[in-house]
Specification:
This protein has a domain at 17-28 and 53-81. It has three helices and no strands. It has helices at residues 4-22, 24-31, 55-77. Helix 1 (4-22) runs antiparallel to helix 3 and helix 2 packs across helix 3 (55-77). The longest helix has 23 residues, at 55-77.
């Protein structure tokens, strides 16, 4: 039988993992929101917020999402093992 703590861990892992796999770009943009777009390290004025996400960032976020889903699945399967 699951305790409340385990149920919350499974639910959080499922939600976070699915969001990272399905929509990694908004999650990455939220993580980068603190960076100053006018610092000169990004694009020029007029091209959005000047932040082009590299493809490997998106795939890395998806890989982290899959790892989180795997851990959540492992925790969910514990009573069955």
């Amino acid at each position: 039988m699951y305790t409340l703590r385990e149920l919350l861990a499974i639910g959080l892992a499922a939600m976070l993992g699915v969001v990272l796999v399905v929509a990694p770009r908004p999650v990455i943009r939220l993580q980068l929101a603190w960076m100053d777009p006018t610092s000169g390290r990004h694009g020029e004025w007029g091209d959005g917020d000047g932040r082009e996400l590299q493809t490997w960032w998106v795939w890395a976020a998806r890989a982290v999402g899959l790892a989180i889903l795997a851990v959540g699945g492992f925790v969910a399967a514990q009573p069955l093992l």
